[in-house]
Amino acid sequence: MTDLILKYNLLDPSGRKEVLDFMDFLLAKEIKSKRPVKSAYKKRILKVSVWNDSDIDFVMQNQQKLNQWKAQEFCG
Known about the structure:
Layout: H1 2-10, H2 13-34, H3 37-46, H4 53-68
């Protein structure tokens, strides 16, 4: 540990900032990897919409109406 402190003290201020930034990056990466993956997945999957039978019936009825619709022809 003293070796690390000695080397750190030899750096100029911008080098010290770079070391601190890199350590922050490593710590953030470590914290992120320790989070349970299931909870993030569970949150994402719970946001998926669920359609019931009446929702599907409504879409099917509108699909039939759309298929019966005749578009006007344009004369040019």
